[in-house]
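Our collaborator T.R. sent over the components below with a one-line note: 'Predict the complex.' Nothing else. No constraints on interfaces, no templates requested, no preferences about which chain binds where. So this is a plain run: every listed entity goes in together, and whatever single assembly comes back becomes the starting point for the next discussion.
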Amino acid sequence: MIAALWHNLDYAASVILFCIGLYAVITKENLIKKFMGLNIMETAVFAFIVAIGVVDGGEAPIMGPGVEPPFINPLPQALILTGIVVALSTTALALSLIIRIWRQCGTIEADELREVE
Amino acid sequence: MIRRALVIFVLVVVAIPLMLAMAELPPHGSPDAPPQTHVAPYYLEHGPEEAGAENVVTAVILNYRGFDTQGEVTVIFTAMAAVVAVLVAGGAGVPAERTAAPTTTPVSLIVRFIVRVLAPFIVLFSVYVILNGHVTPGGGFQGGTILGALLIALTLIMSESDARALLPQRPERLLQAAAPLTFFAVGMTGLLLTGDYLAYPHSGPTIWIATLMLTVVEIGIGIGGAMVVATIFRTMGADR
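Returned assembly:
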């Protein structure tokens, strides 16, 4: 398994990044830190999917005179561009909700919020 | 202590199956892996002459998967609308002590000077990125984000009324919706030209029309994206 993982080091790195994000989501009480953890998890997924499209020795998929195959797979990049924009949207909405919680309750610590109710 | 053990247990339970799955995947970078052998070769081969964009990523985003991107620009517009609704609409009911005198530090002279000097170059760069999205890396979203960052930087160094005067109030609403509106307009143009919504003229002598339509969509996405990013930032910073 270790030998197989050594070939897929990029994928293994994104799993580690995913776990770091998950750790932050589970353990941090501050809502902004929780959401930063969620963003790290998103980034891990993006890195993983972009890494799938990599071809050894490939060039950027921009045609023109003087470029020749192999090319990097353009499809994961296009999908992840969409994903990044949606991640931006969710981040903006979540931060505004956190600002609203701060205004209403005066705290953004999850454990204190449970007592406020 | 039990809590910490539980957290480690959860992380291990998540990580080990994922690592096993990663070890089973085809080797990283191999040209024969399934993602590289199905639809991607078609895009790489026919993209430039069929879609009117030498950058195949742009061809995929705006031409082959245009519907997807139209939904995406609608999502960021909706997110901006939701941020405004959450933060502006519910202003009442704030306890008094929390609205009391926010302390803002004035921005230093150096920061103000540098932003003012760099602003024209940032605008130039963002226009370049937007307009060259079909031949170089870049495109509407990337250029729009650069433009939006410039708007945010200018908002930071100016007083609030100056920053508001930077963009007039009336077309602002239209500019925020620029991306979905441009997509709709170009989609209808495609309907008139080819008989299908969001279809572009195929390869042949009329391919320049497709390139022109792609460029119009890029400009729309760029303006709309910049306005959305700047509006979200301003709405969040309005009650500093």
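Summary for T.R.: The longest helix of chain A spans residues 74-105.
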